[in-house]
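hey m, so remember when u said the tokens were messed up on ur end? i reran from scratch. heres the input so u can diff it against urs
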Amino acid sequence: MDNNCKGQLLIIGGAEDKVGESAILKEAVEIIGKENGILSVITTATNQPESVGKEYDELFKRLGAGEVNILNIGSRDIANEEGSRSAVKKSSGIFFTGGDQLRLTSILGGTSFHKGLVDFYNSGGVIIGTSAGASVMTGTMIVDGNSNDAARKCTLKMAPGLGLLHEAIIDQHFAQRGRIGRLLCGVAENPEMLGIGIDEDTAIKVLPNGTFRVYGSNSVTVIDGRTIKSSNVTELAPEEILCINNATLHILPSGFGYDMLERKVIRF
């Protein structure tokens, strides 16, 4: 965790409620300042930027957001334009839609926009992401891996993320797509990392003090790899069933949270 960071993250596991109470997206509107806020929606991850942008524009305005800007940054050239970085500076919050997380990082990573995003977050900005937009929050992200299957060695594909949240790995659509096996693989390969699996219509709000609170209708799974005593992770015998000894696991519904520095559960 970066003790100098002043920003907040709202990390959503995907498939958030958009037609009912929309509690998670209402929280997003609240933390950017409601009608006084300027929310920039980044549609880079999706291959349908116009329709996805229109959907979120209408949705956030219905929920009381003041100004909503749709930014389809579809190339590295656009991401390096001064206008893209300026759009970040004038925003109260940045929202990343779902889609393909590798498309997000390959287009935005290391650009003027990315540098502006990190500065924005460190200086107190709010960054929100759902599904693929959730995975990219960390320094190392899951790109692909087996779902609804036993944990197996050497089946996980990982890549650098946008590097906003350190010492953690995020997975999304977690329980609904049976992704505990691949998150266990990620933690076994990187035991210093905290594995955080976020269910659909569920989110965590990460505060500058290194704690997060759970919101939404499902739960968040936390895997602490620092307690692992041994595992069989190695390049030898690829696709062998994974063995981990003594990993610590927590299941946290709404009303609970976690201290990522002290590695302990919080009850609100």
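this time it looks ok to me. The first helix runs from residue 23 to 32. if urs says something different then somethings off w ur setup not the seq
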